[in-house]
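Inputs:
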Amino acid sequence: MMSFFRTLRRHPSGLLGFLGIIFFLLMVLVGPYVIPLDTKVKVDRIYSPPSLQHPLGTDHQGRDILSQIVHGGADLLYVAFLASLLSTMIAVVLGALSALIGGRVDSLLTGIVDVILTIPQFPLLAVLAGFVQLDSSTGIAILLALLSWPHLMRPIRSQVLSLKERDYVEAAIGLDLGTRHIIFAEILPNMASYIIIHFILAMTGSMYAQIGLVFLGLVPFSSSNWATMIQLAWVRGSIFFADSVYYILAPIAAISLFQLSLVSFSRALDEIVNPRLRAGDA
Amino acid sequence: MTALLRLENVTKRFPVGRREITAVDSVSLEIHEGEILCMVGESGCGKTTTGKIISGLLRPTSGTVLYRGQDIWQMDRTAFSRFRKDVQVIHQDPYASLNPVRTVYKTLSAPLFRHRLVKNRKEATQKIIELLEIVGLTPPEDFIHKYPHQLSGGQRQRVSVARALTVNPRLIVADEATSMVDVSIRISLLNMLLRLRNELNVTFVFVTHDLSLAKYFAWDGRIAVMYVGRIVELSPTPQLIQQPRHPYTQALLSAIPEADPKLTRSKQRFQLRSHEIPSLLNLPPGCAFHPRCPWHQPGLCDQLRPQDELLQDGRQVACHVVSQQDREAAG
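Outputs:
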């Protein structure tokens, strides 16, 4: 844990990313208890610019934008986190199995992966979202995970294929350390940084995918979240209206800042997880 | 002496595309308890594959591997596990044989815990310190929490040896264990291995391409010379070095440079007919060495495969010409 912060200190961008992630987590988890969601329509304050009372201005019905931003992240973050967690887990398990068992299992799994990878992801997602009843965020997360795991499964499979031929794995077989030890203690830790970084980048991917779905109106997301805000701004035509710039910019800024935090944090992670790159503890 | 491990007509084939190559071709071999057996030969002659078959990491295509008289591939789970622990491998490349994300402590403690050789972390630490001292990594406290990348090649190789020693092996297969460390470190590594053999009575199979290393390491042991998958000569080291019988052994020996450059230049080179090693995909018929052999007899060597034959002096050679000479000398 100490070396985690020591390494972060030498990575200003990674530290900023880490702080950004903490900030967003606090905002969506604690924020709603501090700032209540403003649902009251105030006709006299439609599209008012930022003020002390409304730090980010108001929307087309005169409601506070800041409160919508605070309340509108939890859903998206939850789906992004769950989707990439599931997809990473599926990819690691199937990729490792495929490489370790080989033979027919391997051909079958890589065949399935190839098929999924050749279909354009977003249109498929859009079509599926139309067919499947998606009224819960968990459902959307599962759907996103089912479509995104092949991207990671391929590289995991090839890494395991290469790692399982290493001399230290052979030594572990010779020492009769058992299959479980070989997979979890010898092979997987060597891919840890890769897996974690992919996990974070997968979050950005599933974030954009669900925003796209909401924006197209294919997923009936509840009340206010960042994606619905953009969609509403679009539907109400506020993107053509100069006064409404805050309403459209606020969710976009929130999304971009969160994604930026994830990406810059992931860049510092490689050094944190990989002992060969970790300096100062020699 | 009883055989600790015996190979009987062991053959290993690998598929190469649609074809097959025979990496090891009906090799028979006995390894006695406490001895040092060196396997020498050019790259690709099958010495590493033989080493892996001996250690049970590769299953031969045909033939049997007997450990203390039991076929290792017919053993039940417990007996095989016992065999696995008794026979350990030290790999060639110290940069690949240690897991880069595991410290020395983790690498050495895993087999200790797995096989219940220690009860807790304290005992494990104590045992590991002992092992590090045995392999000459002193003071052990300086090494126990290091990652492989913080150690030099020679130090890593010592950690590999310590890892092999965790399970109290009876037989260690050292596959080119010293060829990737600096020459200056090599001799101290070899001496350390020799000390292990004397103190712990561990049997060694030492695989190397370097005949002078074999000579140093196995002076009171035996050397098996391999050529494209077969053992061509097997005899006690002093005899093999002083009076090689098989033409291939003679060629190998005459190719060793001497420390004195004048001596090296004046040395009588054993003239081969060709310097090309035949491709394993296209082995010559008869004796695989005949296209290079200066003694080859047309009609015999290129037709008939020589068998492993015991000569009068108890040495084993696979060569028509040598056998003939031997029979003539005996009258």
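Remarks. The interface with chain A takes residues 55-57, 81, 84-85, 87-89, 91-93, 96-102, 106, 110-111, 114-115, 147, 149-150, 160, 163-164, 166-167 of chain B (CB under 8 Å). Residues 243-331 of chain B form one domain.
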